[in-house]
Amino acid sequence: MSNKPHVVVLGGNFAGLGAAQKIREFAGDAVRITVIDRKNFLLFVPNIPAEVFEGRDPAKTLSMDLRSTLAEDDIGFIQAEVQALDPDAKRIDFVPSERPGAAPESMHYDYVVVAVGNRLAFDRIEGFAEHGHTCTDFYYGNKLRHFLEHEYRGGPVAIGSARFHQGDGTKDIKLYGGHAFPSAEAACEGPPVETMLSMATWLKEHGKGGPDKITVFTPAKLIAEDAGEQVVGKLLEIASGMGFHYLNETQDITRITHEGVEFANGKSVEAELKLVFPDWVPHDFLKGLPISDSEGFVVTDVTMRNPKYPNVFAAGDAAAITVPKLGGIGHAEGEIVGKQIAKDVGRMAAEEADKPLEPVVYCIGDMGANQAFYIRSNSWFGGPDQVLKMGHVPFLLKMQYKNLFFKTRGKMPEWGLDASKLLAEKLFAA
Ligand SMILES: Cc1cc2nc3c(=O)[nH]c(=O)nc-3n(C[C@H](O)[C@H](O)[C@H](O)COP(=O)(O)OP(=O)(O)OC[C@H]3O[C@@H](n4cnc5c(N)ncnc54)[C@H](O)[C@@H]3O)c2cc1C
């Protein structure tokens, strides 16, 4: 066994895979790296809605083998359920999950990167299993596809989010030169905006109506507020012009019934199709740890390092600083983790490694009929940008992004984002 520092990355989806690859890129052979994930593939979540509304099984095109991907960079992989993290003992407890019945084991780390995402808490929404739909994974995506193809009779549609419970882990964080960290009522509202537009196209294409059948709702004052007021203002203007109905400040979903969705503010909406996104809740094993905030999100500074335990990092949805919960932000965080660990092992200068996280809401959402919307905004965090574009070019970019991700096994070239920006914002501005 090598005596190099052992970096254990918990989770192997966008943030975990990205962090592991960046650690290898920047720290080179100075470290040994192991990724632990309960499943052995990467689930490319953002394109599930596009596949489902086109009537395709998302499982056929949206998974990437983790073990062989990581092996390309000499990164070890263990398929296991992480059960506990002890930051004082520097120990991970896990149970191998390839087959049931495995005995619990422990592993020592020198550095740990928590990238286990969150629990999407559908189990906290009463009536969801019987009456609700969503498109956050292959199972639910295919359930919705089946419902649309075989059961949906053309009745009203309700689309929206449950309330997000942000912890206190961001209270000391300042972004973009001093802006206090904002607080969100919804974890990630790109998906409801995306599905409302795709659903409207689906209704039209199937001769079942249009936007006026759809009510979109949000627990917040403004849907997708993290995209910036100007962007959302424009989106809402376009949406109301098309005939969508809009309900805000619903506070939370209390129940889904056969008839519709009931909200914590006492109101309700009638719907045959109830397409919802739940609360993003930290995993139980993170709750109450000295590295976690009041909800269980892992506390970090703007270099993704835990202030009390400098050998503990977090990236992606599991990190308190990742609000809204976006894979794009997790990817940027993985890169910072790579640089920090490279700095610690003497492979990168502090000047380069210590550049702080400057989060950007970067979202390309499918609208159906080969069209998409493109948002690039940092104004919610105190930055200067708010850009919204719609049309065929953003759709092309969304599909190309996925193809490039799979082709490069997650190692998106530096020019990928710049090229998207140039195409969407300059050359083919809608
Ligand atoms: C419908 C939809 C559309 C979206 N569209 C976009 C978009 O356009 N752009 C964007 O930036 N973001 C988008 N997002 C958000 C994006 O999917 C998430 O932010 C991203 O997946 C978070 O990455 P992550 O690696 O932090 O967590 P996850 O993707 O949740 O991955 C966590 C990993 O950890 C593993 N894991 C969890 N617990 C354990 C455990 N105890 N033991 C072992 N392994 C464990 C899981 O198996 C998983 O592989 C969308 C989300 C949804 C639901």
TrEMBL record:
InterPro entries in alphabetical order: FAD/NAD-bd_sf, FAD/NAD-binding_dom, SQRD
Keyword list, A-Z: Oxidoreductase
Source species of the chain: Acidithiobacillus caldus (strain ATCC 51756 / DSM 8584 / KU)
Domain of life: Bacteria
Entry EC number(s): 1.6.99.3
Full protein name: NADH dehydrogenase
GO molecular function, one term: oxidoreductase activity
Keyword Secreted: no
FAD/NAD(P)-binding domain span: 6-134
SUPFAM superfamilies (UniProt xref): FAD/NAD(P)-binding domain
